[in-house]
Amino acid sequence: MKTTAIAIAALIGTTSAFAPQGNVARSSTFLSAESSRGEFFTQLLGAGLMGVSATLLTPAVASAAKYGGIGAGSPNVMDPKDADVDASILASSPVQNAIKSVEGYQAAVKSMLEALDKNPQTDVGGYVRKEFDFVKVRSELNIINTAFDEDTQRGTDRIIRNILQDITEVETSNKQKEGVERSERRLEILKGKLAKLDQAFSDMLAFAK
């Protein structure tokens, strides 16, 4: 991930770090990411998976994602301690670099939560678009996934899908009408989405330890 810990600290030093991007044109990379998001959810619909995760799209607040032995229990995700991991692949440079990037994404999520604690009206939309290139995030998660056997991947694939969906939900929950302050309820929802994304990153990284 291109943003270092110092850059993250600088970005959250003031609320302006999360200021909206106005009418400035988005980069071609971001446009391709937006397109990929649409394709991703189209694929989910085709696979009949959206019904399973429909509750994630409601305004209800989720304090954390639950996956198998990690959380409340899912038949599709094993406990990380039971995962079959190829040590040589896990130790490879591509996988280790991907792990560092994902750790950086998680640090960015924590930064947004801290910014909202300081100022509930903070607009994190621009920061999400800048730091979470949808295509890059998915690629790095898939690189980590190559270190796991097929049975483990059945669960980690689900975590990856949820991470990608969570990023989109954070961006959606952040949207606010111009001139209207974010209510306590909307703040609670946004922070819940961020906490859920934070937990999902932890769940994925738990398999790479």
Query: Taking Cα atoms only, what radius of gyration do you get, to the nearest Å?
Result: 17 Å
In total, how many beta strands? Answer: 0
User: What would the average pLDDT be, to the nearest integer?
Assistant: 75
Percent of sequence in beta strands: under 5%
Helix content: 55-70%
Largest sheet: none
H and E order = HHHHHHHH
User: Structural class from helices and strands?
Assistant: mainly alpha
Q: What is the global morphology? A: elongated
Unreliable stretches? 1-17, 19-35, 43-75
Give the distance, in angstroms, between the N- and C-terminal Cα atoms: 19 Å
How would you briefly describe this protein structure?
The chain contains 8 helices and no strands. It is an all-alpha fold and 209 residues long.
Write the layout of secondary structure elements.
Blueprint: H1 5-12, H2 28-47, H3 87-90, H4 93-118, H5 125-131, H6 134-145, H7 150-174, H8 184-206
Helix pairs in contact: 1-4, 4-6, 4-8, 6-7, 7-8
Would you kindly provide a written description of the structure presented here, covering whatever features stand out?
The protein is mainly alpha-helical. Helix content is 60%, strand content 0%.
Name the descriptors.
mainly alpha, elongated, 60% helix, disordered N terminus, 209 residues
